[in-house]
Design brief:
globular; about 210 residues; 9 helices
């Protein structure tokens, strides 16, 4: 993965999140405050603007810019969470202009650890952690198996899609959805849904 592929990932994620805005809004209207679709696509479009002209930067700098932009421009809980994910992933990428599977897996794992700490969530709480934790584990396993980036990211994306669907029957234990108690069951978590989209786009770019 090089810097141009990273930039393509963020650009194509912004486009995919825009296309899914109505779906994400509907999911968030059911169990949240209805703004996740608008907020997350706007944040990624802002990140694309900030990253414009930074093609020569190392991947750590690009991830840091992405994280800071999401942190400052996305409303609700998802801004701090997505921002933290990219900021905590950045140190593993510092000084690198090209990545192998092991380095990407480490960066994502570091980002997910930061995300879990920030959100105080674990798998089963019906949050984006339900997607990122197993996706990170799939990447690390693929790296240990010697898989290339295309294969590893495809596995992570498949795991992410399945994990997002698995949030439907769960009762939310964190965030605004937790106020609904048992009534939060039967709905996919919007943060899990947007996370699966972002990981799917990563796999497409690296394919």
């Amino acid at each position: 993965m090089n810097s141009s592929q990273y930039l393509a990932w963020i650009e194509q994620s912004a486009a995919a999140l825009s296309a899914a805005q109505d779906e994400l809004t509907a999911l968030d209207t059911a169990i949240g405050d209805g703004d996740h679709g608008l907020n997350i696509q706007r944040g990624f479009h802002k990140a694309v603007e900030k990253l414009h002209g930074q093609e020569g930067q190392d991947l750590g700098s690009l991830a840091k810019t992405t994280g800071m932009t999401l942190l400052s421009s996305v409303g609700g809980a998802s801004g701090p969470l997505y921002g933290t994910l990219f900021l905590k992933a950045a140190p593993a990428l510092n000084g690198k202009t090209d990545l192998d599977t092991a380095t990407l897996a480490q960066a994502i794992a570091d980002g997910v650890a930061g995300l879990a700490a920030r959100g105080q969530a674990v798998v089963g709480d019906k949050t984006m952690i339900d997607v990122w934790q197993p996706a990170a584990a799939a990447l690390q396993q693929a790296a240990a198996d010697g898989a290339d980036l295309a294969t590893a990211s495809a596995k992570a994306a498949a795991v992410a899609q399945e994990a997002a669907e698995s949030t439907i029957p769960l009762v939310a234990k964190k965030g605004r959805a937790s106020y609904l108690g048992e009534r939060s069951a039967g709905h996919k978590d919007p943060g899990a849904a947007s996370s699966a989209i972002i990981l799917h786009v990563l796999a497409e770019v690296l394919a």
